[in-house]
Design brief:
- With 200 residues, this protein is α+β, with helices and mostly antiparallel strands.
- It has six helices and nine strands, in the order H-H-H-H-H-E-E-E-E-E-E-E-E-E-H.
- The chain folds into two domains: 69 residues, Orthogonal Bundle (434 Repressor (Amino-terminal Domain)), CATH 1.10.260; 113 residues, Jelly Rolls, CATH 2.60.120.
- The chain has a six-stranded antiparallel sheet with strand order 1-2-3-9-4-7.
- Helix 2 crosses helix 3.
- The longest helix is centred in the first third of the chain and has 21 residues.
Length: 200
Amino acid sequence: MLPMTQEDGDLDSLVRKRIRALRVAQGWSLEELATRANLSQSSLSRIENGRRRLALDQLVTLARALDTTLDQLVETADDDVITSPMIDSTHGLMRWPVKGDPGMTVVRQRLTQPPPENPARMRAHPGREWLVVLSGTAVLMLGHRRLRVETHQAAEFPTMMPHAIGTAGGPCEILGIFDRDARRGHQREGEERDARDTGE
């Protein structure tokens, strides 16, 4: 048997703490999780307390009982927790990729213009978008509706609905979260806008 390294020991301890934390978050007793995972209560107690070796088959069963996956149960936080934004000074944007789902993007934007009143300038593309107003008041044009979104309010909508966003009565800052399809739609629109601006 190979000796356990410090790294192995840290992961072992993390997994045990995670099992207990997930059980407690569900409001389950040792007995209830043990029943769901087809383990004895004493075996589960020893697993949580580090007095029983972690076996792969038991971890798979526990992950399923806790409504998670084996990968999530044993993942570490060794990757960078803090990330810096990518700055798009041309469009006044700050972008952060979401590590948990590479298809998701978080964007911070300062708006200074009201939304276009002309329906022909409203966007529509596959996906969903979520935004929160950090400061000021935003105006969201959504189909035939005109919605005011105040500071600390949020809006979520399918981007297949023709939409546009701007400001009301002064600059505002928004934080938007786009799924993969919405992000692609906005990227294409940005490229088309750049082409128009440069006369290409």
